[in-house]
Known about the structure:
The chain is α/β, with parallel strands linked by helices. It folds into four domains: 2-102, Enolase-like, domain 1, CATH 3.30.390.10; 121-349, Enolase-like C-terminal domain (TIM Barrel, Alpha-Beta Barrel), CATH 3.20.20.120; 357-575, ANL, N-terminal domain (Rossmann fold, 3-Layer(aba) Sandwich), CATH 3.40.50.12780; 622-713, GMP Synthetase, Chain A, domain 3, CATH 3.30.300. The chain contains 20 helices and 33 strands. The strands form seven sheets. Strands 15-14-19-18-20-21-22-23-24-28-27-26-25 form a 13-stranded mixed β-sheet. A seven-stranded parallel β-sheet has the order 5-6-7-8-9-10-11. The chain has a three-stranded antiparallel β-sheet with strand order 1-2-3. The longest helix is centred in the first third of the chain and has 15 residues, at 88-102.
Amino acid sequence: MLKANFHKHILQFKRPAGTSRGVMLEKPVWYLAVWDDTRPEIRGIGECSPLSGLSCDDSHGYEAMLHWATSRIHLPPEILYGELQRWPSIRFGVEMALRDLSMGGNRILFPSAFTAGEEVISINGLVWMGDMDFMIREVENRLSQGFRVIKMKVGAIDFQKECDILSGIRDRFDGDRIEIRLDANGAFPVDKAADKLDYLSQFSIHSIEQPIRAGQHEDMAELCRKSPIPIALDEELIGIHDYRSKEELLRHIHPHYIILKPSLVGGFTGSLEWINLAGSMDIGWWVTSALESNIGLNAIAQWTATLGNHMPQGLGTGSLYTNNIPSPLKVEGGTLHFIPSHDWDLKNTGSETIASLDAEPSLVLNGRRLSGKELKEVADKMSSLGSVPTWEQDLGRFLVQWLSDSETITVQTSGSTGSPKPIQISKRAMVASAFATDKALQASHCPDALLCLSPNYIAGMMMVVRAMSYGQNLVTVKPDGHPFRNLAEGVEPGFAAMVPAQVFNSLQDDHFRERFMKIRKLIIGGGEIAHALEELLKDYPGEIYATYGMTETITHIALRRINGSASEEYFSTLTGVAVDLDERGCLIIKASHISKDPIVTNDLAELADEQHFRWLGRYDHVINRGGQKIIPEQMEKILAPFISQRFYLVGQPDDKFGRVPVLFIESDPWPDFQMSGLQTAINELLPHYARPVRIYFRSRFEETTSGKVKRLLLI
């Protein structure tokens, strides 16, 4: 499912920017990040950039509408765009972010010769109005930079002074050297507009944008018919959303040009409606920015490059700010270039923080909602208090790690891919894993999650991350073999993760079993589920899944339903995960959101295809009996119906064969009749080389702190 958040950034002008609406010193923008919860490391970025005093959506409810849009980003685009019709800059930001995400999240929204660095876009140079000396210097600078078209703001100062400046410019630079476009931003009074246009025409003006205030359609239509200077509509287009109204406006006024600012007229789709209508009426057009940062300017420029309009565009605003977003865009020789070798620096967009990694992380812990500073204080307190149980201190230490500035978490591996060792795991990849689980199980539909595993290990850590990512209430109990023994009465978590021993123990007590049956979604990992236990679970009402994974894969990458009519023999990989086999027959995991390199395991498997496999056993458990290889886990499946306790087949050193199989059963010694029945089953069902040469009994198997039996230490 799609997720989104936003981040506010204040752009600072290099110098005061004067228009007829006042002087701008800074401009707020909001960056929108969108991602799929299965691949949160790939983000589309959009910019919501209203213009104060001009945008129809410039209002105090702007951030509230951003919250509305980000919480509904999963809706079909046509529905979302329709709801955002009267919020064009937010609609454009959403459209931009979704387009970026759909193209891989690399800020290449519209691949073309422009984005390949092979073509450029001709642009005008923007000159803000100032005194005569300043304006002459600015025009000279633009000429030296290669511009042959300049756009000047008028209406901000006394009209006669503006005319004197234009006269001084024309005395120095005639129409062959430089083309002048004017932008009045609606500053001329209606009763004086015609005279002003007549007077300005002596300066060989290409066009003038919005000479009078928008909404005066009769007067504007009259000016368009009579003006000696071609008129371009700009603000007149703002706030007109439906197609019929757009058509009526253009037919009635019939300007010479229209100016498309996607942030103000509803993004790419809204702008295209205007362009198509203008084309049908022989009205010219060009595209200009609405003072966006380089995020928005990049999107507009790439889109414009695909439209086939070779007039100079108004896309030279990237150099206006002291703190713009560094990008591959570059203005040179009066043209806009895209330099593919130049990198983006997105730190000021806020897009590097997602989901549970935002500036205000939160966790509902045993019914208490904690966020920001309070969550950090609770984590620090839990981790340092000697008076609280060790497992609570462990949870506190994990939360301190999670809330730190580090992008990674230190985790101890179990040895699935080699010798146990501490490794660093990306927090971003952990969040991705959480959302991949949710896509498969819809675990977020359960309001409460049970943490009964140690947060020192990846399985317990991920239950915390899932609760934070899903907004669940995390119910914590001592992580021992009896999760319901310490769970308060009346608390019924709907989602849980357990190891097989915890499940087995929960079924031995009538009251615990009744509470266990209320779990709606259960994942079981940390070891193979015994055949007898799987048989006990097959008719349980909730959804129960065996998991396959390890620390290196950030818990499970595959699930197998073990109960109900939907039970499966093969594991199914999560979205974005594929599997293969190496020359040993061991599983290779390909999951780019977890690791750029394939993860080679020591798990023997049988593949159905690259998304489905059957686990056979551990390569390091294989017993080589004089050249005959025995996969003990496969033999154990055959014997499972005859042994109700935990048991393992392991290799014992032997002078003749190197190793021979022996059987360990977690039980007091059996009586003779029971042993006789087991031996008959062994002789009838197992190949002769796989039959255990001896059977041992142990009152209890030694386990690791994470609940796994130390199988190789049984000998």
